[in-house]
Amino acid sequence: MSAGERAKAKAEQVVGKAVRKVAHVAGDRTTEAKGAALEARGKARSAKERAKGAFGH
Q1: What is the Cα–Cα distance from 41 to 18, expressed in whole angstroms?
Q2: Which long-range contacts link 43-46 to residues 24+ away (Cβ below 8 Å)?
Q3: pLDDT in tens, 24-50
Q4: pTM (2 decimals)?
């Protein structure tokens, strides 16, 4: 996993979590769901890159 890809994945996770929590406090369910989706996308990207590294691709 390159440093750039790792940073992108972590940034998506952090931003998604922040958006989700702020939207939850504000009671905005739509934005909360968007934040959760962004966080999940960051986690998936991170897992994908780790899997690539484990198999040497």
Answers
A1: 14
A2: 43/9, 43/13, 45/5, 45/8, 45/9, 45/12, 46/1, 46/6, 46/9, 46/10, 46/13
A3: 999 999 999 999 999 999 999 988 888
A4: 0.81
